[in-house]
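Priority: medium. Attachment 1 of 2:
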């Protein structure tokens, strides 16, 4: 019903919309675990990296770059 009406409004064949919709769905394979990934503790990693850094002083740019990289890594990879 929705697909048919969407097809009429957009003037796109219903089969094309249906195919695009099916292609956009993620289908889990038997080898793939459907459970969400374990959370990544970015702040804990940040502290651990700084604790193990042998330098007495670190630059602001180093800390900012490290924080940005860990933040990007902590974003869920969907």
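Attachment 2 of 2:
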């Amino acid at each position: 019903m929705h697909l048919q009406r969407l097809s009429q409004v957009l003037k796109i064949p219903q089969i094309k919309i249906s195919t695009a919709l099916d292609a956009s769905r993620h289908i889990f394979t038997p080898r793939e675990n459907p459970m969400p990934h374990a959370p990544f503790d970015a702040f804990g990693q940040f502290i651990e990296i700084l604790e193990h850094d042998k330098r007495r002083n670190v630059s602001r740019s180093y800390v900012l770059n490290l924080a940005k990289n860990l933040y990007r890594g902590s974003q869920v990879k969907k």
